[in-house]
Structures are given as structure tokens and as C-alpha cells.
Automatic annotation (TrEMBL):
Domain Aldehyde oxidase/xanthine dehydrogenase a/b hammerhead: 21-134
Any one GO MF annotation of this record: iron ion binding
Source organism superkingdom: Bacteria
Keyword annotations of the record: Molybdenum, Oxidoreductase
Record organism: Actinoplanes friuliensis DSM 7358
Pfam family, one: MoCoBD_1
Alphabetical list of SUPFAM superfamilies matching this protein: CO dehydrogenase molybdoprotein N-domain-like (SSF54665), Molybdenum cofactor-binding domain (SSF56003)
InterPro entries associated with the record: Ald_Oxase/Xan_DH_a/b, Ald_Oxase/Xan_DH_a/b_sf, Ald_Oxase/xanthine_DH-like, AldOxase/xan_DH_MoCoBD1, AldOxase/xan_DH_MoCoBD2, AldOxase/xan_DH_Mopterin-bd_sf
Lineage, broadest ranks: Bacteria, Bacillati, Actinomycetota, Actinomycetes, Micromonosporales
Full protein name: Dehydrogenase
Record carries keyword rRNA processing: no
Gene3D superfamilies hit by this protein: Aldehyde oxidase/xanthine dehydrogenase, a/b hammerhead, Aldehyde oxidase/xanthine dehydrogenase, molybdopterin binding domain
Length: 736
């Protein structure tokens, strides 16, 4: 341990200078000799069969190297579904193995040419004819209360405690509302990109914009029946990723096309390809019903939802999860059905489920507070449970009431008028809203790391982890420096390559603690190796791993005893460097405890009385996410998530043509994410109580920041205007 802790300092991002100076090479820029370029051709119907493929004109277009369709694609196995040790895919739709069409936008051909422009042009000349069949596309058929359709694919596990329906009927006060949220699409600055080079029939390298290196390696091994050891996946820089830079059809097709073309092939998705080929966030319809006593305590909490996924896919958007965790109630009725439609797959997108689920739950709570004439924070405080309300486990650390109190002070919540439509500034109605945030703590199994110390006094930590811009490289160097007792500038952190020890995906807000747990294991192995090297006259001779601590650049007997620096041990043993490698301990901390990140979102809006335009004018997020390793990168994570939440509240919506299943707004011109002018200064703060059960006391910061944001905006819009909008996004037509 360092006497002066580096963990907790606002260290600037290590990858920052390379990114802002243009020195960073992204997947679409990696130089590869003999590279050819690919373009996808995607279906224009949602369901049916391909009945004809005419490649005549495309084949004779300039620069064409190869064209692959299901007629000449190699046999490929189906990728394992969801994130497991065997892979990370959100679909089990077979890729180009048959003539069947499963969604509008499914890749049906891939054209390889000498230049990207030639590939684009030749792809435009491919003619596919289809025999359409009837597609299931109408979300409105799935309304809550409508008969169960025949294509219910699965359900998120229901939670039934007591008789919530009966409690609701006899409650002193109740609200019973339906909320809707639209389909969302991932809009990272860098579109998905991949480059594949085969070395021989059995080995390849894939450069990929991914948040799942080890799992992509495993997926390719499964799909192409290869030994994972013969597959190298490299992902040094990623230009943003929010849950779906995992394995999709485009990487598999790029690899297959590279084999067919006998050339390295690069495939960069266009923005519209991102909308059509990769999955987004499902539409939801959610019913929240709350039954309460006069003091606000809940007799019934009902949260029922319908969400969708594509045919052959299987990701249940867990929008009913916050309702299990946040509030005490006598009876719970929580249920969710997942229905298959002929759409792109539903995939994880920042705070999957929780972000849109909290919109419904936190708006309903605001409605209840108003009916009871209670301050919404006072109501939430009265509902604070002593233990996890639906599984009975104690919380490892939950300080929401403190967050409510400190957040309210800092935001000036007491000055809010509780009467809707009562504050005005010129043409603008002004209002404030609040909502609670929660996101589960996860530490994924399967992560490994190595730690190397060298005779020149440096240490290098290696793991196949991901830096998508959130600060991984920086915070891990900080942690390792403290753990090894070295100055920060003596510690390297190498990542982004499957040649390093296996890592968990950067998902579920789980990467940071997962890596820390594997560095702990690797360091223990390193200490054992170092002690083995020490000579018989060393003060460390005969010491065991538990007898020593790491500080001042070396290994020392505990309690201030003597020891040796790392270079001293290595030099005396005639070694240039020494490595320890280890696997993270199994994530058993969640067996006995309910572990979650928490937060509370305070929002002020101004709503124009003529145009209905909603401007967010002030924000405070107060978070309870355990120990903060780096205030600079954590604050940036929270802010980014809040920006994304504001997008979901006010503008983001992927629109499908319900006759054809085609995305109508597959571009950033028509799918509106917030720009700088839409975002006020965002204040973020945190309690910083280390979680006693988590490695280093840290919990996830990547996703919880998005939870509750849309509800806080909607509640503020109600406070400003008296209008309840239960249907995202909150566009002017709904406000007026
Ligand atoms: Mo997060 S949506 O699990 O990357």
C-alpha cells in the first residue's frame, strides 16, 4: 500500500492525449497490408424468404474482390446467446446460413472490394428478390390487458409476495398508470468496425471495436470451430460503447468474407447499418399500480411490463427490476413478458431495463406523493426498506436517505413550489423534479490478470480489458500503484488484446471491480514467486505470502519490518523481470448481501408556454456508489449517463414503420441525441462510503447515472406545467 493513497485522486485519463491529438488508432484505422473493404447489403423486408439473388452487375463493378451470400457462405455455427463464458452475443439468428429473413435490415450479402467506395457502389448493384410472409410488428397488439399473443418468448422471473391486487382494491389511496417508452438505438461516436486477417485456415486476428474481447474470441472459436488460442482479438481504442459493442453478425460475416476473399477485410458499419444490423433497446409498456395508506406506506406495489425482442433472440429488458429493490411494500406483484417481433434484437443499452423501468416506477411515485400531498422525497424516505424488500437479504451498503438529504440541501429542493404550474420566468414555466436511481452491483466471473515487476523498478499489469473512454486504464493503474506500493508513473496497464490474460466484458458496470479482484489474485501469485527468489540472507527468507506487505517499491515484513525492493530481489536473483498471474476469486459477495449502486436525480426544467419546448436548466445527481477511485473519471461517467438520460427523456426514439418493420430514422439527423446546447452544467456528487463487501469498496458508476433521469425530467415537467407525460420522449406536441 502507498502511504499517500493514489486511489481517490483526480488523475487525468491516460488515453486522453492520444485520443485528442489523433494519435490513437481505432479499429477502422489500423494499418493492415493487403486490406480489402466490405459493405453489407441488408434486407428490405422484415419476414420471408430470399427467392432470387442477382449479382451480375455487382460482380462486374470496379474493384470487386468477392461477394458472399447464403449461397456461398461457409458453414457457421450459431453464436452462444447472451454473456456467458462461451461468448457475448445478443442473437442466435443464424448468420447467412439460409434464405430466411427475420428482420428488416438483416444482412443478406457482403461485398468485398479494393476500396470502401468500390464496395459501397457494388453493394448498391446487388439485386435480391424476396417472397415476404406476414411479419409480427405491431406493438399495440401487445398492450397490457390484451390477450396473451402466441409469440411470448419468455418472461423475466415474476415476483409475487402477498395479494397485491386485493391490497390495491382496498387501499386508502392508489395510483394505477400505464407508461410507455420507445425503441432506442446506440449512437456511439465510433460506429461498429471490424478488421479480420486470417493467417492460415485455422488462425486469425480480429481488430474490433468491442467491449468483450475474451468473449469475442470465444464466440469466433465457436462459430468457426477453431481453437480460441488461435484467435487474437485486438481492441486498443473504442470510441464509446453502451452495451452493444459485442458480437453481432457483422464481425462473423467479415471473418467469413475474409476467408472467401483470401484477403484481410475491413467492415465499418454506416450509421444506418448500426440502427439496422445491431440491436437497440426495446419498446416497453409498463403498468405501475401503488396502493398506499394515508402516511404513504405502501400496501401494494405492482409493476407489470411488456417488452420485445427479435425473433431468435433472448434478452429480456429487466425494466421491472428496480421495483424489486427500491421500496418497502406489504404486497408485490411484479411481472414481465417478453414478446418476439420481427425487429432487430433487443440488446443491452446503458442501464438496460433499469433506465426505462425507473421512468415508470419513479413517475408513479411522484403521482402518489401528489395525491397524498406529501413531498416526493419525504414519501421515498418513508418507503426506505430495512432489508431488500423482495428477497430479504441485508444490503451491503445503502445510504439513500443520506443521499436524499444531502442532495436536497445542495440542490435547494426546499425552495421548490409543490403547486404545479406556479412558477414562471417570462414565457417559461419553471419546475423541479426528483427521482431515485439504482443499478445492481455485479462482479463477473472468469477474469484473470498478470502482474510483472521489472529490475528497472516498473510494474506492468496485463488483462484483456477494455478502455471505451471511461477511464479503465487510469483507475487500474491507480489501484495497482497503491496495491504494489509504487508511484503511479512506475505502473503500466496493458489491455485491449486477447494475448493478455482473459477479462470479463466491460458491461454491467462490472469491469472495474472485476479487474481489481483479478489483480489481487495475480499480485498474490507474484508475491509467492518473489519470496521464492529471495536468498537465504534476505530479511524475507522463510517468510510466507501472509507475512509480508507491499510498500515503498518492494516486499517488506509486516508491521514495519525489513524487506527488499522489487529490483533488489530481481537483480540478486539475476532476473530481469518476474510475473505472477491469477484468476479473480468467485463473486460470492452477492450470495449473502443485496448489492446495488444508488443515487438520486434532481432536475429543473423550463417549459416554453407557446412552443412546449422543454429545456433542462439545472441538474444535480447525488450518488451512493461505494468508494470512488478517481473523482474525475467517475464524475465524467455520471455526467455522460445523465446526458444519455436527458436524451431518452426529451428526444431519443427509433421509429419503425409498422407495415414494413423498417427503421425510418436511421441517422443522427433524425434520431436526436442531445448536443452541447441541450445540456446545462451538470453537478454530480457522491457520498463515497466504501462498500464493505466489494473489492476496494467500489461499486459500479457507469450505468446508475442514467437511472431515474427520464423520471426526474417528467416529474419536473409536471411541476412546471401541471401536465403528466407518461409516454417518452417528452416532445412539444405532448406538452402542449
Ligand atoms: Mo452496460 S448496457 O451492461 O454496457
Amino acid at each position: 500500500m502507498n502511504a499517500d493513497q493514489i486511489v481517490g485522486r483526480a488523475v487525468p485519463r491516460r488515453d486522453g492525449p492520444a485520443k485528442v491529438s489523433g494519435a490513437a488508432r481505432f479499429t477502422a484505422e489500423v494499418p493492415v497490408a493487403g486490406l480489402a473493404h466490405a459493405k453489407l447489403v441488408c434486407s428490405t423486408i422484415a419476414a420471408g424468404e430470399i427467392v432470387g439473388i442477382d449479382l451480375t452487375r455487382a460482380r462486374s463493378a470496379p474493384g470487386v474482390v468477392a461477394i458472399m451470400t447464403h449461397d456461398n457462405a461457409p458453414a457457421m455455427r450459431i453464436a452462444p446467446l447472451l454473456i456467458t463464458l462461451q461468448g457475448a452475443s445478443f442473437t442466435r439468428a443464424p448468420v447467412m446460413q439460409d434464405a430466411r429473413i427475420r428482420w428488416n435490415g438483416q444482412p443478406v450479402a457482403i461485398v468485398v472490394a479494393e476500396t470502401p467506395e468500390q464496395a459501397d457502389h457494388a453493394a448498391s448493384l446487388v439485386r435480391i428478390s424476396y417472397a415476404p410472409t406476414e411479419a409480427r410488428l405491431l406493438f399495440d397488439d401487445l398492450k397490457i390487458g390484451a390477450p396473451q399473443p402466441d409469440h411470448v418468448q419468455g418472461e423475466a422471473p415474476a415476483v409475487t409476495l402477498g395479494d397485491a391486487a386485493a391490497a390495491l382494491r382496498t387501499a386508502h389511496t392508489s395510483v394505477d398508470r400505464v407508461y410507455r417508452t420507445p425503441w432506442h438505438t446506440h449512437c456511439a461516436i465510433e460506429p461498429h468496425a471490424t478488421t479480420v486477417a486470417w493467417h492460415d485456415e485455422r488462425s486469425l486476428t480480429m481488430w474490433d471495436a468491442t467491449q468483450a474481447i475474451t468473449h469475442s474470441q470465444a464466440t469466433l472459436a465457436e462459430v468457426f470451430s477453431l481453437d480460441p488460442q488461435n484467435i487474437r482479438v485486438v481492441s486498443q481504442f473504442v470510441g464509446g460503447a453502451f452495451g452493444n459493442k459485442m458480437m453481432w453478425s457483422h464481425q462473423i460475416l467479415c471473418a467469413a468474407a475474409a476467408r472467401l476473399a483470401q484477403r484481410p477485410v475491413r467492415l465499418v458499419l454506416s450509421r444506418s447499418d448500426v440502427f439496422r444490423v445491431t440491436g437497440g433497446r426495446t419498446r416497453t409498456e409498463q403498468r405501475v399500480a401503488l396502493g398506499a395508506r394515508a402516511d404513504g406506506t405502501l400496501t401494494a406495489l405492482v409493476h407489470e411490463a411488456t417488452t420485445t425482442t427479435g425473433v431468435n433472440d433472448g434478452f429480456a429488458e429487466q425494466c421491472t427490476f428496480p421495483a424489486r429493490v427500491l421500496y418497502g411494500a406489504d404486497a408485490f406483484g411484479i411481472d414481465q413478458r417478453v414478446v418476439e417481433l420481427h425487429t432487430p434484437a433487443n440488446s443491452s443499452m446503458r442501464a438496460p431495463g433499469e433506465s426505462v423501468g425507473s421512468f415508470a416506477l419513479e413517475c408513479a411515485l411522484d403521482e402518489l406523493a401528489e395525491q397524498l400531498d406529501l413531498d416526493p422525497l419525504e414519501l421515498r424516505t418513508r418507503l426506505e426498506p430495512a432489508v431488500h424488500p423482495t428477497n430479504g437479504k441485508p444490503f451491503s451498503g445503502r445510504h439513500l436517505v443520506e443521499a436524499y438529504r444531502l442532495g436536497a440541501e445542495r440542490f435547494g429542493w426546499a425552495e421548490r413550489s409543490s403547486t404545479p404550474r406556479s412558477r414562471r420566468d417570462g414565457r417559461w414555466w419553471v419546475g423541479q423534479g426528483v427521482a431515485t436511481a439504482t443499478y445492481p452491483y455485479t462482479r463477473m466471473p472468469g477474469g484473470r490478470a498478470s502482474v510483472t515487476v521489472s529490475a528497472d523498478g516498473h510494474a506492468t499489469v496485463r488483462t484483456a480489458a477494455h478502455e471505451m473512454g471511461m477511464g479503465t486504464a487510469t483507475v487500474q493503474a491507480q489501484y495497482a500503484a497503491d496495491h504494489l506500493g509504487l508511484p503511479l508513473d512506475r505502473v503500466h496497464f496493458e489491455y485491449g488484446d486477447s494475448r493478455h490474460p482473459a477479462a470479463v466484458p466491460a458491461g454491467g458496470s462490472a469491469q472495474t471491480v472485476s479487474i481489481i479482484a483479478s489483480v489481487v489474485a495475480a499480485t498474490r501469485a507474484l508475491i509467492a514467486e518473489l519470496l521464492r527468489l529471495t536468498a537465504s540472507d534476505s530479511p524475507l527468507a522463510g517468510a510466507g505470502t501472509d507475512d509480508v506487505s507491499l510498500r515503498d517499491g518492494g516486499v517488506y515484513l509486516r508491521d514495519g519490518g525489513a524487506g527488499q525492493s522489487y529490483p533488489d530481489i530481481l537483480r540478486r536473483a539475476g532476473r530481469g523481470e518476474l510475473t505472477g498471474e491469477g484468476a479473480a476469486s468467485p463473486p460470492t459477495e452477492t450470495a449473502q448481501h443485496a448489492m446495488h449502486s444508488f443515487g438520486v436525480q434532481f432536475c429543473e426544467v423550463r417549459v416554453h408556454d407557446v412552443t412546449g419546448e422543454v429545456r433542462v436548466s439545472r441538474w444535480l445527481g447525488m450518488f451512493d456508489t461505494g468508494r470512488i477511485i478517481n473523482p474525475r473519471t467517475a464524475a465524467s461517467q455520471f455526467r455522460g449517463a445523465i446526458v444519455m438520460g436527458i436524451g431518452s427523456a426529451l428526444s431519443e426514439e427509433t421509429v419503425f414503420d409498422e407495415r414494413t418493420g423498417r427503421v425510418l430514422n436511421a441517422s443522427l439527423a433524425e434520431y436526436h441525441v442531445p448536443v452541447h446546447a441541450d445540456i446545462p452544467p451538470i453537478e454530480v456528487a457522491w457520498l463515497g462510503h466504501p462498500d464493505p463487501m466489494a473489492p476496494l469498496g467500489g461499486k459500479g458508476v457507469g450505468e446508475v447515472g442514467m437511472v431515474g433521469v427520464a423520471a426526474a425530467v417528467a416529474n419536473a415537467v409536471h411541476n412546471a406545467t401541471g401536465r403528466r407525460i407518461r409516454d417518452l420522449p417528452i416532445t412539444p406536441d405532448k406538452v402542449l
